[in-house]
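Deliverable D5.2: sample structural annotation.
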Amino acid sequence: MRTRGRALKLTAVVAMMGLALTGFSTGRGHGHKSRSDGGGGGCSSSSQNHGGSSSYNGSYNGSNSGGTSGGTGTGGSSRTLRDGTARLVSCASDARPYATVAITNPNHRRADFQARVTFYDDKGTTLYYSSSVTVTVPADGTANTRVELAKSLATSVARCAADPEAEVSP
């Protein structure tokens, strides 16, 4: 009888781990959470919203004689930051060997971005492709940054083009 009890405990632990690894939840929390904070429990859900958080108040008093458990959660808000938009403000010239780019942050928190600019000569040939230094842009705000190039190349620049997306810096 003791062996049967251990087998049942092991089966229960394996089943719970399988459900946990597949993202299954009870409906109180949110399994695979969407941006709309819609429902997200089990195989069917009643689209409940409980403030976007979930918790487990039960306890497990059995022993776990094998396997591992754990996770990689970070707690708090872990939404991925979106890339910003970049707009060319001014191109490089003899007097200013850099292009100025305005970066707009679409996120509701400040973030670091990089802008990229391609510099062309009068024939449309690419002279140089470069990134800006990392610039911090306030939440839902805009900040200017410079994309520099060598003075020797600046004399040959006829036009510039900024990549439309400013990448989020890690």
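Annotation notes: Residues 1-78 form one domain. The mean pLDDT is 73.
The annotation will be released with the project's public dataset once the embargo ends.
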